[in-house]
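Dihydroxyacetone kinase, pasting as requested.
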Amino acid sequence: MPPPLPDRLPAGTAGPGATLRCDRPHARTEEDPQVPQKLDAAAVRVWCAGALEALGREREEIDAINVYPVADGDTGTNLYLTAESAATAVEAVFAAHESGPGRFGAAGEPETSAVIRAMAHGALLGARGNSGTILAQLLRGIAERVAEGGGVAEALDRAAVLAREAVAHPVEGTVLTVADAAAAGARAAGPGDAAAARAAYEAAREALAATPDRLDVLARAGVVDAGGMGLLAVLRALVAAVTGETPTAPARGPVHGHVHGPVSAPAGACDLEGPAFEVIYLLEADDPAVAVLRARLDALGESLVVVGGDGLWNVHVHVDDAGAAVEAGVEAGRPHRIRITHLAGATAPVPEQVQRAVVVVVPGEGLAGLCAQAGAVTVLARPGEPPASGELVDAIRRAHAREVVLLPNSAELRHTAAAAAEQARTEGVRVALVPTRAAVQGIAALAVHEPARRFDEDVVAMTAAAGATRYAELAVAEHRSWTTAGVCQAGDVLGLIDGDVAVIGTDLTATAVAVLDRMLAAGGELVTLVLSADLPDGPGTAARLERHVRDAHLAVDTVVYESGHGASPLLIGVE
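Structure tokens follow.
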């Protein structure tokens, strides 16, 4: 069995959910003499950045036309998050190259093979949903051929083959059809990557327009395939990266007498009696075990897609028995990053609707229990795995309320939360998004929540409470790096205040004290400490910090909560 790939990229790179503070490259212009007409390392970087930008622009429109295989309105968001993970991994390779010695190509850049393999691996780790999983496999196929020295035509051909093989029951009129058309167009083009990329885009554009003719559910809804539309955006970015020319996006005109826009699938347009759960996990296993797993999951459910290779796989399936799907993964190898989402289309008894509810994203089981006791519906955000918009929409639906206040508790979730709120509004739910950037701000907002108030007044009060709460976080540096507070070494304790590194230390308690003193220098009445269950001597640390606040800062109260396992060692809020 080949050694499994790590689920975290090496030091100097980054995985899904990581934040890289670097400028994204812009697509090269037609006049730029640097345009190589070849998919080299620089072009891969530009391509990933361009694809992410394009999917960001079109995310809401793609979400809106998502009716197959499940009309859960998250295809655009899933594609965006998958592309973001790929782009982040590519940027990390360039950042590692710029900060120290590495593997270099002829032009003094990272080798193309290293860059494009990082792209594919990042997409595999961050793949979301059915569409994102297929996109990850398409990128894997492209990476295989380009790393071997092949051109765009060979790469797209391999990508289409791998993607179709990954889907248990391929359906025409989907992203697979668009990928096949792109590969065929590239094969028929003239020599060179530029010609192949242009031809692939044009063939994919025509295939996308024809998807309603090949899949009845699209024709009835009056839309093209959402996944195919996302792939077209990725191919358009590929043309721009290789040629310097950005093709004109297809007009969003009527399809079968309908106009693109937010849609609700008509009766029979999608399977409302389908499986209740979407199950996704990464799996370390060898090829024979995965073959057995495919057969077992295929018998359990539908929409089965298994992508990856070389010992690491991303498994996606829709099932009624989520436990059985996870158990099958355990028997095949080592599943991790397990994500189970209730699908909107599944039938279930609907409880009586309430007037108002709060949906809050939390970083650990401990805070989930705390917020649930306060009456909130919680969504768990695991390290490196921020929830997709579909999960937030599902939580809003589970709240069964006419009015919902959404607390994302992360700056990185603002676009995802906005997409979820917009989707819920189309379903008749009044949603207000309070832009909380940390869990302690969410706790402050939830503390002043009063369902008896008018909705607008309640939202204003919660927003004010969150805005009046400064937040900090303690983290451990994974490698040597430059920060806003100076150079940190691997293993250093970093104190981040309002998102920026403010203190670098070697001891967690001492660093926390320094952070508290900085935050309280401007005043404060209440300190909130949220400690991870993984923190050694957590109760002792909490007691020492409480004592310091009591002795050094008069008339300041302290409350302590436990966040659970896997969360940041310590979160601090000052109100």
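Note for the archive: Residues 381 and 387 are 6 Å apart (CA to CA).
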